[in-house]
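Morning!

This is the sequence you dropped in the shared folder:
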Amino acid sequence: MTRFRSPTFLLVPAVAAGVFLACGLRWYALSATEAAYLDLRQLKDQIDVTRARGAQATPGGVALSDLLVRYRAARDRLETGLRSETGAGLGSEDRRALDVMRRTLSKDLGDERDAPAAASSETPERVDCEYDAATLAQGQDGMRVLSDRMYACFGQAAHHVPFEGKKLDRLTVFSLLPVTEDPTRRRRLFLALEPVWRSINRDDGPGSPYRRLVRLSAAKLAADKTSVEAGAQNLGIEPRLVEEWLTSVLETWRRIAADRQIEPWDFAYEAGKASRALAHVITLEVLRPVNDRFYQDLGADPGGLEIRYDLGPREGKDPVAFTTFGGRQRLRGGDWAGGEPWVFASYTVGSVDNLNELLHESGHAVHIAAIRTRPAFLDWPDSDLFTEAIADIAALEMFEPAWQRKYLGTSVPLTDAIRAKYAGIVMDTAWALFEIRLHRDPGADPNQVWTEITRRYFRIRPHPELSWWAVRGQLVNLPGYMLNYAVGAILVADLRGRAKELHGPCTEGDRTWYPWVSERLYRFGLERPSRRVIEDFLGRSISPKALLDDMARARGGP
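The structure's back. Tokens below.
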């Protein structure tokens, strides 16, 4: 998932202009304003990372309070600079850069007038989760206020899952379900997540926080004359096709899965042969070494790219793994330097799922480390769907037996590997379909909607009394976001197939792979529309065929 060093180099506008000229780049009319913009982004990145670390200072010792003072001054300077830019005489690209900076200042670079919000890792603040959802949801900003409280309560519950006298976390439970042999214990483990479910949906009554949030979200989409599935439209995918594509993926899973009814706590176990077979080699201690070795072999050494990892659990930490900028690339003496991606996750055990997630987040990190564009466009692409997809271009190699033999020293049969690969993808697809249907009918009972989807496509025995869908933070803090994972899986299968066709396989490493992919997919940021980047690479529009063909390998085909 995407999201937001101590500053050792901050370009002043005059120096910035000199750098642009000295490097032989064409002159940008907005270079001074963009230098101020980049300074502000750098400070905001450091503030966000410091807070995400649960710290009061950067790793270099700069206090959060000092960062905030400098940030406010930098914001005032940029605001003044942007007010003075009339746009007169600017070319189309410069006008777009000016629009991006103004929009980002308004949307993502707020005043930060409040006191530092970083939670101390020693004394985390308990969240009041006995709130009245109707009261929180009142007012113009009610949806955000409700969402923020729900997410905080979700995080609190996700870090405190009681089981057999121990405290587990949500990801550890997910990792244990595929490898827990005893069905009775597996059921207890699954039901231990009930506090997490209740943090989102309580008793599933009409006044539940989630049902209220969906009504607010659906009303906002309606007011904006858009929909959840319209999120794919800017990539050239007709909204009317989205649900058809999602159900085609789910129907394919139904065909390759065992033809018998199962309990919800058995889904991960049924698809988990690979997880059980590889459990002894994917320990907590090997997650980083395997991750780093693979990306090194692709020419994307995490250490050389200054990627930072915060992978240990702690109180108050965001329950959802994400990657963000800790610093953005700058031109220094003709070379790009100064980027610092950060990866955040919470791992207490090793597992196929956790290794897959870490490879995915590192995919985000190597992506943003490769962006090479002017400061106004040095950001995530304009499509979350595209961004989530390209994080998996390399990561999904882990499900190939040849990859497993090289990086894990053993492997599982292809059919088991493919089922393990797609078990998570089809769950994301089910969540995306769930969000589409609830936003279309916000008065529907989410438990019933989820029960129908999972009964039909996964042959899961109905349990409408359980809100077992309520385990993804994105459902709360980013309603509609699950579509990016679902359609992103379709897109990445297409991109992976094309990359293999044009450049060859990267399963066992290829140090030319990262420069090659960076030049064609990673480097643009906001410089080019994602649709153009995709269609230039594919030579056509997106199709689900590559993913459906790949899923078919689980039946024992080539």
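Headline: The radius of gyration is 23 Å.

More detail when I'm at my desk.
O.
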